[in-house]
């Protein structure tokens, strides 16, 4: 993946520095003062979200031409910490912390949280009304996460013990196709992209997706890379699995309506079945087991789930809002004209 095109001073700074051998970026205040409270939320800040994504990507596959020594460069980590604090502050303002009731099983508490979530039904629109260009846009958005599906949540495995660890490994083993390349969910998504005549290379649409799409991915990396957010990472995964089966059935239906064959729809069909099982494992065995072992951290689990639900709502609002106005939900109207 190439370094993304800068969207402001933060990403311009990172782009210029990362093209050189590792060196001191500068003091944390090099990223500049935080935006005023009345300004754009960090969740919608194009420059900040892309800067965070760039920093996080150094812990995944990295970028072509960027020295791997940057991954643990202390001055860059200090800058990332400043950006993370802004992100976390914006999350705390956008996502009220659910209160955990000790007498309520974690599985029930998560189910209630999911049931109370609202927002536009993007899945229903894609199933019944979206045209092919809109569906392709949706897939381009989702490629930012799905081409590395499961990786952020895998950070939790070495941080768990006992039943919760076994439950997470069971879920992740399915995500990685049980060790078979062709069955890995990221590879199934590549197949969907190819059938839709999209570029299936990792990060191909990074320059095209807006801040809210990056935030959906960044929150997973934020939770995954910090052990203090372990409970939130588990809750995020649980919410992800508990809200997956029905939407994926709708996505598959929409793709079928638009002419997609069995191979094009396999990614969505696979999730209808797999995630119906995963949601039970995630809510009961993984999150329930974690909350039983660490009762004081049960609230973190619900907060992570609430963050997942809120960002998914904000993403749907962005996409649906743009489409209602007859505009592209991506940063450039003609992005789908061909692969780059």
TrEMBL record:
EC identifiers of the protein: 1.-.-.-
One Pfam family of this chain: Haem_oxygenas_2
Keyword Nucleus carried by entry: no
Keywords: Oxidoreductase
Region of interest called Disordered, as start-end residue ranges on this chain: 20-40
Main enzyme class: oxidoreductase
Keyword 4Fe-4S: no
Gene3D superfamilies membership: Heme oxygenase-like
GO molecular function, one term: oxidoreductase activity
Listed name of the protein: Iron-containing redox enzyme family protein
Organism: Sphaerisporangium corydalis
Lineage: Bacteria, Bacillati, Actinomycetota, Actinomycetes, Streptosporangiales
């Amino acid at each position: 993946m190439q370094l993304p095109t800068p969207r402001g001073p933060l990403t311009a700074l990172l782009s210029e520095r990362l093209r050189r051998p590792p060196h001191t970026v500068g003091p944390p205040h090099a990223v500049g003062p935080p935006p005023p409270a009345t300004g754009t939320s960090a969740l919608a800040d194009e420059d900040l979200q892309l800067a965070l994504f760039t920093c996080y990507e150094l812990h995944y596959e990295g970028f072509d031409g960027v020295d791997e020594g940057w991954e643990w460069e202390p001055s860059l980590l200090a800058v990332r910490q400043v950006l993370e604090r802004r992100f976390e502050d914006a999350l705390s303002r956008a996502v009220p912390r659910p209160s955990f009731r000790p007498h309520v099983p974690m599985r029930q508490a998560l189910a209630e949280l999911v049931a109370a979530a609202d927002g536009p039904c993007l899945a229903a629109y894609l199933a019944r009304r979206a045209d092919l260009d809109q569906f392709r846009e949706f897939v381009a958005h989702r490629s930012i996460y799905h081409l590395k599906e499961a990786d952020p949540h895998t950070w939790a495995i070495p941080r768990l013990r006992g039943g919760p660890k076994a439950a997470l490994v069971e879920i992740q083993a399915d995500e990685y196709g049980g060790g078979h390349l062709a069955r890995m969910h990221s590879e199934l998504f590549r197949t969907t992209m190819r059938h839709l005549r999209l570029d299936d290379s990792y990060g191909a649409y990074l320059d095209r997706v807006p801040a809210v799409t990056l935030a959906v991915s960044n929150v997973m990396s934020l939770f995954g890379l910090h052990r203090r957010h372990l409970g939130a990472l588990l809750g995020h995964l649980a919410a992800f699995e508990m809200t997956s089966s029905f939407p994926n059935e709708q996505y598959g239906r929409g793709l079928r309506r638009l002419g997609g064959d069995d191979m094009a729809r396999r990614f969505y069909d696979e999730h209808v079945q797999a995630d119906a099982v995963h949601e039970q494992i995630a809510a009961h065995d993984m999150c329930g087991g974690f909350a039983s072992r660490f009762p004081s951290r049960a609230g973190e689990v619900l907060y992570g789930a609430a963050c997942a639900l809120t960002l998914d709502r904000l993403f749907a609002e962005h996409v649906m809002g743009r489409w209602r106005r007859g505009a592209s939900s991506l940063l450039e109207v003609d992005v789908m004209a061909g692969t780059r």
